[in-house]
Structure to design on (67 residues):
């Protein structure tokens, strides 16, 4: 008589192991994506700040040029 419970448990264990490893990979990908989003947000903020500064410099230069 084959021990079906044993095989069932083995198959179940392997499936669960695969699911867990896939979930781990997915969470890793999500973490990388979140880090990338944060980086892009920081770059956007820096870019906006620099463009504001450059706009002010341009305004100063045009004012000085008019005078």
């Amino acid at each position: 008589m084959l021990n079906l419970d044993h095989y069932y448990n083995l198959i179940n264990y392997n499936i669960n192991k695969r699911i867990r490893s896939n979930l781990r990979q997915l969470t890793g990908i999500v973490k990388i994506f979140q880090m990338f989003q944060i980086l892009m947000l920081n770059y956007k903020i820096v870019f906006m700040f620099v463009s504001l500064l450059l706009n002010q410099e341009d305004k100063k230069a045009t004012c000085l040029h008019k005078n």
Observations:
- The chain has a mean pLDDT of 85.
- The longest helix spans residues 4-66.
- The two ends are 102 Å apart (CA to CA).
- The helical segments are 4-66.
